[in-house]
Structures are given as structure tokens and as C-alpha cells.
Amino acid sequence: AQSVSQHNHHVILSEAASLELGCNYSYGGTVNLFWYVQYPGQHLQLLLKYFSGDPLVKGIKGFEAEFIKSKFSFNLRKPSVQWSDTAEYFCAVKRANGQNFVFGPGTRLSVLP
Amino acid sequence: NAGVTQTPKFQVLKTGQSMTLQCAQDMNHNSMYWYRQDPGMGLRLIYYSASEGTTDKGEVPNGYNVSRLNKREFSLRLESAAPSQTSVYFCASSVGPYNTEAFFGQGTRLTVV
Lengths: 113, 113
Hints:
The complex is a heterodimer.
Chain A: E1 4-6, E2 10-14, E3 19-21, E4 23-25, E5 31-38, E6 44-50, E7 56-58, E8 64-68, E9 73-78, E10 87-95, E11 102-103, E12 107-112
Parallel strand pairs in A: 2-12
Antiparallel strand pairs in A: 1-4, 3-9, 5-6, 5-10, 7-8, 8-9, 10-11, 10-12
Chain B: E1 4-7, E2 10-13, E3 19-25, E4 31-37, E5 43-49, E6 56-57, E7 64-68, E8 74-78, E9 87-94, E10 103-104, E11 108-112
Parallel strand pairs in B: 2-11
Antiparallel strand pairs in B: 1-3, 3-8, 4-5, 4-9, 5-6, 7-8, 9-10, 9-11
């Protein structure tokens, strides 16, 4: 079965620190990749997505992610985090011939002012 | 644009009671999904509907039923609620099976006592 793992359960950073959240998936075929963010008490919102082409994708709010096919990874990065980035971040994968999105367990990010 | 609308937002049920969670999308999407979110487990798929008239089980379907009433609406029913079904439920939709992202509703926080 396909699975998605996220390296960190809880990350605590100070404002202006750099962020990298790891995501790995187990499926070897063609995939769509996503990062979603969930602010406290809110629904999931799309940060960025990868379908094909340039493996470095840019999303909203200064986030970017790099798809490394050989490592089955799609890590999320931001050069300088803000207090408002405090949220839970979910990596998700969709197979080319699959019908549904498979989510990782999430990484909670706390940014200290 | 309303996007994906879920009702109710909050619900408390007694063990053994039944209820239906409603979901409607106004984006003319073909695929719709029901997920449950539990701490540390990310989002797990309960049921999905790839297109109007079809439904399929996801990862955790036991204790639930669904109805794809039309292209817009996809409801989730708990026939006999159990405390293990205490969770936050999210409905989502996407244009189709691939190269599309999922759009999420605001969620329903359900407590079964």
C-alpha cells in the first residue's frame, strides 16, 4: 500500500529561521505531489503542487518544494519563517492511476516571535 | 465563491445515534472525498466518489455509508455512532482523477459521548 511519511512531528523555530520539512512516499510510479497547510481551527489550504516539469516548485507565502524522484522525496522549504507560519503542514501524494489523495501524518510548526 | 460547504460545523452525538454530514461543492468537480482527521494520523480516507453515481471505500470505511446524491452533493452517514468516531471530518473535491488538487471544506467536529 502506498504511504507518505513526514520526518518531523513537531518543529519549533524562531522567526527568521530557515525551514525544511521532509516528506517521503513509497509509490514508485508517476505521482502528483502536494503540500497543504492547516492554520489552527481552519481547513486545509494548498501551499503548492507538483504535476510535472521543473522539480523545484514555488508556492504561496514564500514556500517552495523540491521533488527528487530518485529519493521519492518532496521536501518543503522556506528561507525565513514568520510567526504567522505557525500551523500544521501535510504532504500528500496522488498516483497517476489512483483515485484519491494519500496524506502524511502532518508536521506541526511552531514559530516563536 | 463558496467552494466546498459542509454542515454542520459542530455536532455532539450519543453512542448509538445516527446522523448525516452534508457536503456540497459549487465548482463542478467530478470527484469528491470524505476524510477524517485524528491527532498524529493525518487525514485518512473514508469514502470517495470518482464521479456522479459511483462510490468506493477508502482506508477506514467501517461504520460509515455515503451517498453521491448528484454531482454537487456527497453525504456521509453514521448509522450507529461510536466514541471511536469522534474526529474532525473533512469533505473535499477535485476536478478529476489526476493533475488536479483537492479543495477542502471547513470541517465538521464530531464528538460521540
